[in-house]
Specification:
This protein has a domain of 223 residues: FAD/NAD(P)-binding domain (3-Layer(bba) Sandwich). Helices cover 36% and strands 24% of the residues. The protein contains 13 helices and 19 strands. The chain has a seven-stranded mixed sheet. A six-stranded mixed sheet has the order 8-2-1-12-19-18. Strands 3-7-4 form a three-stranded antiparallel sheet. Strand 9 and strand 10 form a beta hairpin. It is globular, with a radius of gyration of 21 Å. 46% of the residues are buried.
């Protein structure tokens, strides 16, 4: 029998690490608390580092075929004036690939398709994690019909998101996620819509509206607002129409093309206090469980995909799980926590700015910045080369 792993969480990061571990010869079980394995969300942008991670996992070509490259667009004011233009072609020349946009559900489905159905256990939640015996770890979980189950794998990966129960068990004194000060509403349009460009964000005062054009003609839109945690609206779409009344096209058209029942609303949390480690014994944390960050750099999923590839690569090197995980932690923690800090700063200098003088200064700085500044900022985080997985 080969070496075994239990992955707690069946989101993008959890599925990606399951693919990676299987490619290096491990048997994997993915335990996911929701009954339906379908990543909730609207759309997602993937930069070069995320796509290279998917290439290393053997699924990059499939994702590119389902995604749309982001070549046109940029950053605007609510009146429609351009603050900065996107140069997707320059990014492609520098990195070998453009940023792409894809529905989250489509990306999730492509990752699921790489795994045999028997390794996916939906409708089950982890109830205990026992690391008391040296060199061993025991995981207990309960199915949604109340049936208990357990496993004693060689490795456990906590990929269970920002509210990670795995992280809470490993680091009970850590304060956990904090509210970032922002909330996000988002949706996919019902059908094709004229989006005008591949990707745009528009900055107001403490407000951002953005869109991603998709291959089938639909678009994803998101609205990020300064907001206390827990604030909700009786009619979210009507509130968005009120908030963005008078903003430039295609914002009104995107809202008009949206079914009110499709609008998602989530407060944005982050691990403002960095974890002291991503590992403990034979247990590793990955993605939001390890380094939940704000979305202001579009790097959350990309960093989870990097985690998945590096974890699988280091595990494949041996000689034992604990030392492999120590290498994973040493490689991933500085980078992921650095990107998280940069995302927080980008939000403070971008979407979260609300004072009119600060907004005016930011806008002036963007207008005057040389055209290559935005490309260099993206390259700073996206220029990453994955390790090669054996057999891939």
């Amino acid at each position: 029998m080969g070496r075994t792993a239990v992955v707690v969480g069946g989101g993008i990061g959890g599925l990606a690490v399951a693919i990676g571990l299987r490619r290096v010869g491990w048997e994997v079980t993915v335990v996911e608390r929701t009954r339906v394995l379908d990543d909730a969300g609207a759309g997602i942008s993937l930069a070069a580092n995320g796509l290279r991670a998917l290439d290393a996992l053997g699924v990059g070509a499939q994702v590119r075929a389902a995604a749309r490259g982001q070549y046109t667009g940029g950053t605007r004011t609510p009146q429609g004036a351009w603050l900065a233009r996107m140069d997707g072609a320059a990014l492609e020349r520098a990195l070998g690939t453009p940023i792409v946009g894809i529905p989250r559900a489509a990306l999730h489905a492509l990752l699921r398709a790489e795994l045999p159905p028997e390794c996916l256990v939906p409708g089950a939640r982890m109830t205990a994690l026992d690391r008391s015996a040296p060199g061993r770890v025991r995981v207990a979980y309960e199915h949604d019909d109340g049936r208990p189950d357990e496993a004693e794998p060689d490795l456990v990966v906590g990929a269970d998101g920002i509210g990670s129960g795995t992280r809470a068990l490993l680091f009970p004194d850590h304060p956990g996620p904090a509210h970032s000060g922002s909330t996000v509403l988002r949706a996919l349009t019902k059908g094709p819509v004229e989006a005008g460009s591949d990707f745009e964000i528009t900055w107001g005062r403490g407000t951002e509206f953005g869109h991603i054009a998709l291959t089938d003609g639909r678009a994803e839109w998101h609205a990020v607002l300064n907001s206390p945690a827990g604030l909700r609206y009786p009619n979210p779409l009507a509130e968005m129409r009120r908030r963005f009344a008078g903003w430039h096209e295609p914002i009104p058209a995107l809202l008009d093309a949206t079914d009110p029942n499709d609008v998602l609303h989530h407060d944005i949390g982050e691990l403002a206090d960095p974890l002291p480690s991503f590992v403990a014994g034979r247990v590793a944390l990955l993605g939001d469980a390890a380094h939940a960050m704000t979305p202001h750099l579009g790097q959350g999923a990309c960093q989870a995909l990097e985690d998945a590839v590096v974890l699988a690569a280091r595990i494949s090197e041996g000689p034992d799980v604990a030392r492999a995980l120590a290498r994973y932690d040493a490689e991933r923690r500085p980078r992921a926590q650095g990107v998280a800090a940069a995302a927080r700063q980008a939000g403070r200098m971008g979407q979260q700015l609300a004072h009119p003088v600060a907004v005016a200064l930011r806008n002036t700085a963007l207008r005057l910045a040389p055209s290559g500044v935005a490309v260099r900022m993206i390259l700073q985080h996206a220029a990453w080369t994955p390790p090669r997985l054996p057999g891939c």
